[in-house]
From TrEMBL:
Classification of source organism: Bacteria, Pseudomonadati, Pseudomonadota, Alphaproteobacteria, Rhodospirillales
Record-given protein name: Pyridoxal phosphate homeostasis protein
Pfam families: Ala_racemase_N
Family as reported in the entry's similarity comment: Belongs to the pyridoxal phosphate-binding protein YggS/PROSC family.
Residues with N6-(pyridoxal phosphate)lysine modification: 36
InterPro entries in the cross-refs: Ala_racemase_N, PLP-binding_barrel, PyrdxlP_homeostasis
Domain spans labelled Alanine racemase N-terminal: 12-230
Molecular function via GO: pyridoxal phosphate binding
Length: 244
């Protein structure tokens, strides 16, 4: 069985190759290593191999893991659906939230951040597959949301996140990614946040190379490094079983 370090090196090489195919360099794509269900000892193997960006889907799991790895130089990202009543806990460890999808959550985050005297990087989640099982704004709602978001000074919008449809139809997967890229391109021209919205978080273990070819600047990969999980991905990503 390949080690975590070997798998991480293999994923990094594939990220580099996909970036080259899309006319970019490896440094243009950030890998967020998804650690859901993975014990801290194995996560530390990835950290020892040079990985610094870690992502979690569940607040309680993320907080516990962040405490266990408190001595390591890592940056935690919340990539799963976030309930407003978990904001206080998520801000104990996360430096970024990639699942901002409604104004009520925006207001709760901003209020807590104002109290803490700090800011937070955020990505707006968009439901590009139009599946009822998935969270995220409808593409037609994004422009209005960004105008409202401009009023919350403690949040730093950096771009957008999506999950493609889980399907063997590669054309459909690419379509989902292209929808998000088009939203990003329009927002950079028209939204109050402008050029700050350049990032695209899209692509997981089953489709991250395709996502990079379609413009991803962030990919969220777990199983390709740690191996299959004991729980199905539907436990973490509604409608996305098998692609985390």
């Amino acid at each position: 069985m390949a080690s975590v370090a070997d798998n991480l090196a293999r994923v990094s090489a594939r990220i580099r190759d996909a970036a080259v195919r899309s006319g970019r360099e490896a440094r243009d794509v950030r890998l967020v290593l998804v650690t859901k269900t993975i014990e801290p000892e194995r996560v530390r193997e990835a950290v020892a191999a040079g990985q610094r960006d870690l992502g979690e889907n569940k607040v309680q799991e993320g907080r516990g893991k962040a405490e266990a790895l408190a001595g390591d130089a890592v940056r935690w990202t919340m990539i799963g659906h976030l309930q407003s009543n978990k904001v206080k806990d998520v801000l104990r460890f996360a430096e970024e939230v990639q699942s901002l999808d409604r104004l009520s959550l925006t207001a709760t985050l901003d209020k807590r951040l104002q109290h803490l005297g700090r800011g937070l990087d955020v990505l707006v989640q968009v439901n590009t597959s139009d599946e009822a099982s998935k969270y995220g704004l409808h593409p037609d709602e994004v422009a209005a949301f960004l105008k409202e978001l401009a009023a919350f000074n403690s949040l730093r919008p950096r771009g957008f996140m999506t999950l493609a449809r889980f399907t063997p139809n590669i054309a459909e997967v690419r379509r989902c990614f292209r929808v998000l890229r088009d939203i990003r391109d329009r927002a950079m021209d028209d939204a109050p946040q402008g050029e700050a919205l350049r990032h695209l978080s899209m692509g997981m273990s089953g489709d991250y190379e395709i996502a990079i070819e379609e413009g991803a600047t962030i990919v969220r990969v777990g199983q390709a490094v740690f191996g299959p999980r004991p729980l199905p991905d539907s436990h973490y990503w509604p409608g996305a079983a098998g692609v985390g």
